[in-house]
Amino acid sequence: MPHVNGIDDGVGYGVSGRSKHYNGVNGYSEDGTGLYGRSDSGDGVYGSSEDGYGMVGYSYTGYGVYSFSHNSHGVYGESLYGDGVDGKSYDGDGVYGESHNHDGVVGKSAWGQGVFGISQDGDGVFGLSYNGHGVYSVSYNSDGVYGESVTETGLYGKSCSGHGVYGKSVTKTGVYGESYGGHGVYGHSEHGHAAYLDGRVYIRGSLEKPGGSFKIDHPLDPANKYLCHSFVESPDMKNVYDGVVRLDDKGEAGIELPDWFGALNKDFRYQLTAIGAPGPNLYIAEEILDATAKNSSYNKNRFKIAGGTSGMKVSWQVTGIRKDPWANAHRIEVEEDKPDKERGYYIYPDLYGQPAENGISHLQFPKETKELLINENKPN
After folding, report:
1. For residue range 237-246, what is the model confidence (pLDDT) as tens digits?
2. What does the alpha-carbon distance between residue 361 and residue 349 come to, in Å, rounded to a whole number?
3. Under a CB-based contact definition with an 8 Å cutoff, are residues 81 and 110 in contact?
């Protein structure tokens, strides 16, 4: 039996607790729900504290905290210095909150975690809502929502019309995902973007993609059209440099490159194009020396054009392959065999006449993609 069981069929809280120095509400159970509250119009469980946890629920085999409400928060916890809501379970959900018209779980904290859930085999935090947030958390100095799992999803959010997971922070990370064997963050959308990033984006590791492009408002008709360009792809880590130069009285020109050019690049390739008149005799008179070359008779970050006529305009292009420490340690493997477990699966199975079940995403995320298939096959 739960230690604390609150049910209110009227308009108040199922369970309400407030404390200045310790837990607002504390529940403990070895075989049932640590903390259970239900209400038709108010919060199922509400806990508030100025110095401890707003709410703590602990269970070995059931829910750490379980609450249900029709018109208010499923679980609401608030604390000034501790966790707004803390739920622990070894075999069930750490925190479970359900609401039909409001937030499934709300946790607020000024100094600790907004919502913190730990589970050995179930969900650390699970929130379900039909019209509000599944899980809503606010923190000013720590994590809004933190999820961790050894074998399952650290943080899972689902919504029919709102945000599946929403994270906001003033000074730290709004949403943080980390995994040692899987994906830190996974996003999927049938009709929208799997991820929409409004602002600067930094990727510390390598980026893999089937293709890419830029998409901007069309310069000639920005109100009604988009303009799209594909990225330039190469099996090498290519850098491209170009420019236009006018040759001197001898039909020559020296091209000065940035001082970091030779330290960044190797294996140079050249292209020369005469502008305004033929230049059949144009050639590279002096190549760019590799930065490690012993010959230092001239600048290693320059090359020389010759064979033209006085005043000739020449368009030039030079490419180099990156050789900085990161590039040397992370060379692209142009062709690679699929791991044994991924053989027979495709990134885009439909393009090869294969069923959706043979997609890599279905292999990596069987639980999530199974739900997508069920929803796709439902009759209208």
Report:
1. 999 999 999 9
2. 10
3. yes
pLDDT tens per residue across span 125-179: 777 777 777 777 777 777 777 766 666 666 666 667 767 777 777 777 777 777 7
* pLDDT of residue 318 exceeding 90: yes
The answer to whether the CB of 50 falls within 8 A of the CB of 80 is: yes
Q: Are 37 and 121 in a shared domain?
A: yes
Domain residues for the domain of 378 are 339-380
Query: Which residue, among 252, 246, 241, 251, has the nearest Cα to 304 in the 3D structure?
Result: 252
Which DSSP string do the residues of 288-307 spell out, in sequence order?
A: PPPTT-S--SS-TTEEEEES
- Domain match, 257 and 359 both: no
φ and ψ of 256, to 5 deg = -90, 130
In a domain, 288, yes or no: yes
Query: Are 229 and 214 a contacting pair, CB within 8 Å?
Result: yes
Token representation of residue 150: 């050894």
Q: Whole-angstrom Cα distance, residue 173 to residue 153? A: 19
Q: Which amino acid is at 97?
A: G
Q: Does position 196 have pLDDT exceeding 70, yes or no? A: yes
pTM above 0.70, yes or no: no
